[in-house]
Every structure is written in C-alpha cells, then in structure tokens.
C-alpha cells in the first residue's frame, strides 16, 4: 500500500497529468484532432527520431499498408535537466558566451546551441499524391538508421556506423551536396568531416543549417530535410553561417547561398546514445 502525506500535495495534481507526461500524447492529439484511426506511433530515439519516424513510414508505404502518413518531430528540451546535463559534458556553452558556440565545422566552437521547435512532413505514395493533385516537393529515395552499440552516454567517435548508414542510402551515387548535422559539437563535426573525406574526397559541397536554427534535437533531421526540399523548389543551396571553419579548412563548406538547381542530396543525423540516420532525397 502506498501512503501519502500532506506534503505530497496530491490534491493539487491535475487529473490530466498522465497525458502531460506521456511520450505519445502529441501523436495522440494529432490523431484525435484529425480523426485518424490508423497506425499511430511515437519514437523516442533522441536527435534522430524525426528521420527514424520517416523510416518507419516509408516501410509502411512500401509494404502497401498505408498510402499517406503524417511524419513529425518535436522536443521541449529547454529545461534545467537538459541544460545541466549537456553543460556537464561541455556540449553546451555552460557559463560561457553563446558567441563561442554553435559554430559548425569550427574547432573554436564551445558546443552547440540548444533550441526548440517542431517539423512536419506529409509522406505518400506517388500515385496517391498525383491523384489528389498534391504539390510534390521531392522524393525520399532511401532512409537508413543504425546504432553504434558503444554506450548510452555517447557515440562511436570514428563514425564507422554513420558511414555504413550513409553508404546504404548513397548506393554508390554522388549527391549534388550534403546537408550535414554539424552543429559545433566536436565529436559530431569530426564524424561529418570524415564522411566528407572518405566518401567524396572533400569534393562534394557541404552545408549545415545549425548555425541558423540551433540544435532542436529530434526536430533537427526533418528541419534539414525541409531546408533541402525548399532548395529543390526555389533552386538554391542553403549556406552555413556562424563559422570561421577553423580546423576544418579542407571541408568544402558552403559559406554563401548558391542559386542553382539541385537533384540529389544526402542528409545526415546522429545523436547521443549512438543512433545514426541518413536520408537520400531526389528532386523527382
């Protein structure tokens, strides 16, 4: 039997508190609002969750189980636990100027800048999209995720499994550029630099939108995808801001917006705990 004291303030607990702390509440709310009675899932894999939700949706679409999916991601991470936790491992500019952090591909960066947000995409089969006259912004050609199996407190700093995920989606192709998750956090940026060197001999242009949006955890991968799709639509490659490229001079970083049509783009994402995810997007 559980005993309570007056100090527990049990009566002040709202009757809807279970919904407030339930991981699946956001997806449940969307299902309820739109009266969607089909498959509804929530993935909690950290920074790669948005892309891994896309990976799940793609499997259902390809299997013919569904014809359309709402894929979204969101994190409310601006709290004391997150800030103190990443401050403890020097992932955030704890007790330092924000100007010293959030600089993709710079060894002077003192960690990443925490942000919050949400991103949502509609995925569907081409037949279904064309039948309803939808605007098609791009095609998800391949998605792959895996785990480093190193530690719950980190990742493989050599990026071997990240490269396996990239290899699985590239399938020997060379993209017009790749939209990386470099965010000013040393271990992530080093892996991205290795990927550039090992796969493309530092000849394929690289960009990162993290200097612009910060790092919104699970939202980051879908935000990178949306930036890429907008680039397809308006014929530009987004530039990387807030960096001096110190220590990464060999990376062919895009520092000024390039106005040109692109057709194929690699998107990379990886997170604390060792999950890696890659997407290969095509214009049509």
UniProtKB/TrEMBL annotation:
Stored Pfam families: ketoacyl-synt (PF00109), Ketoacyl-synt_C (PF02801)
A single BP term in Gene Ontology: fatty acid biosynthetic process
Gene3D superfamilies assigned: 3.40.47.10
Sample GO molecular function, one term: 3-oxoacyl-[acyl-carrier-protein] synthase activity
Domain of life: Bacteria
Domain Ketosynthase family 3 (KS3): start-end pairs: 1-283
Entries under SUPFAM superfamilies matching the protein: Thiolase-like
Keywords: Transferase
Signal peptide interval: none
PANTHER family on file: 3-OXOACYL-[ACYL-CARRIER-PROTEIN] SYNTHASE, MITOCHONDRIAL, POLYKETIDE SYNTHASE-RELATED
Family: Belongs to the thiolase-like superfamily. Beta-ketoacyl-ACP synthases family.
Protein name, UniProt field: Ketosynthase family 3 (KS3) domain-containing protein
Source taxonomy: Bacteria, Bacillati, Bacillota, Bacilli, Bacillales
